[in-house]
Amino acid sequence: MTNHIHLLCTPTTDNGISKMMQSVGRMYVSYFNHQHNRTGTPWEGRYKSSIIQSQKYLLSVYRYIELNPVRTGMVKSPNEYSWSSYNHNALGIENDLIIPHDEYLSLGETKKARQIAYIELFGSEIEGKLLTNIR
């Protein structure tokens, strides 16, 4: 996205997300400032996080994130957005940053079955209360 990012992460420690964001902040800010010959922070404020407690809700959040560039008109299809996990989850394109979640793995017995089931999740829009809750 042009003004924000979405990360769907499953921490392995209690403070895993905050430590990750702290590290990303340090490394990215340094890189960004060096590239643009500037100082200070490019961030508007602290990151926002939400706990996803329902496993079924997790797949809806996957869809929300991966359809976000489509909803904003940046691309016509989620596979056109290079910063998405859609190409990994739906098309099987390898990405070392992605570790499949158990809920994704439960979509099918084989990699191909999971990809087909994942693509089918995108057959309908996220609407109404679910969309509001995710936002």
Overall strand count: 0
Gyration radius (Cα, Å) is 16 Å
Q: Quote the average pLDDT.
A: 89
> What is the H/E string?
HHHHHH
Biggest sheet features: none
Secondary structure: helix percent: 40-55%
Helix tally equals: 6
Strand content: under 5%
Q: Give the total of domains.
A: 2
Overall 3D shape: globular
Oligomer: single chain
Question: Summary?
Answer:
By secondary structure, the chain is mainly alpha-helical. 49% of the residues lie in helices and 0% in strands. It contains six helices and no strands.
Tell me about this structure.
The structure is a single chain. Helices cover 49% and strands 0% of the residues. It has 6 helices and no strands. It folds into 2 domains: 10-49; 55-134, no CATH class. The chain is mostly helical and 135 residues long.
Write the layout of secondary structure elements.
Layout: H1 16-36, H2 55-71, H3 86-91, H4 102-105, H5 111-121, H6 128-134
Notable characteristics:
mainly alpha; globular; 135 residues; 2 domains; 6 helices
